[in-house]
Design a protein that fits this description.
single chain, alpha+beta, Phosphatase 2c, domain 1, 2 domains, 5-stranded antiparallel sheet, 7 helices, 20% strand, protein biosynthesis, initiation factor
Amino acid sequence: MTDNDRPHYTLPSLRQAVRGAARAHRLPAELRARLVMSAADLARREIEAGRPVRLAVFPECPESRKCPVSPDGGPGGRPRQLVVTLDALEKLGADRHGGPADLPLPAEFTPDGSAVWRLPLPGGHNARTAVPSSRNGGGPETGEDHGPSELQAMEQELRAALARIDTLTAEHRQLKHELAETNRGTLALYVQLEERDEQLRNAHGQTLRELEDALRPPPIEVPGLELAVHYAPAGTDAPTGGDLYDWLQLPDGTVHITVVDALGHGVTSTRGALNVTHAVRTLALEGHPLESIIARTAEILMPFDSELMSTVLLARIDPGTGDLYLANGSHPPALLLPAEGEPRYLEVRGRGVGYPLAGSERLLHTRVEPGDLLVLYTDGLTESRRDPREGERRLAEAVRRHADRPIAEIPGAVAEDMHTIILHPDDTLALAVRRPRRD
């Protein structure tokens, strides 16, 4: 009997044949249901068009070949997977209804119009029942029998599908619960970390403020002079830098001011600047001439720190007479704004600590009249843009603009005007000294 002589499968008989083969090999109910629906979906168009469809089912051994058949018709080896083939399918291209991705159980498609499923068999299973098919001598059942066994099989498959859904639903619910618990724990930990971080920031800030107070003393109170200061570090993560200052009243009544800008940023530059200011203070209190202090500071410090480089500006002012003396070592010049007149920079040539031939070339002498304003600063105030000369021009304008403010407001207001545009961040230091007008 040839394939052409065999009766055609109907959809019910095809389902029954596939289901019977799957049950004979003890495939799980869910897998069995997927196989039955996929085979029926692929064969539907062929069967409705009256074209024959061939079904072949055989176990495959580890060597990827059919297992030998035992005398009673069953496979003699121990199969690892079940191969189910559906032949004589036309139009398996893109126009076929229900592509491979649409099948409940995806299949392999061959060029000759076959769909192949390779299904793992339960461990240790060795089916002893021949499965009816057109390739092993069987054929389709032409009846439309939907007896109790068929209905029971469908009910079993439905129960398996529902059980699978229930299991997945329970797992999903459990995962959502676990995720919610994890999220609550993570949120609580995040809040604790934020609180701890805030505590550390507060403690860190308090320590830095204490360090700032120690390194940068508040303005001294001297009759006949008003003093104020503004300092801002290059970055909030490094609130200390190489821009330091010092002011003190000497035994003769004059006020000594030191402005230092050590090369670099952060704690290393702070250490260098601190060494310079302390050395200058010691030399000033010992009575060394102002014009010699920068050179003497370099002689003292360089043997201990050959990498130190620092600009230095020294100012000595008499509160009673207004006499001002300046010594400079590579530092930006002081700016003097007379109460009546134009601002002018007080240029003094010299070289800073760590530079060749350190020291001030001369001592500049001028007078600060009542109402005059003197501004000392570091290059972070004028070199935030590319052209330092442009920075000096803008600084003179800013000082003139804010000169009538209370002395405590002037340095900060000037710095704010100067830093509307910053091309490169740098520590900023500005000091203001004013002789009050006579009543």
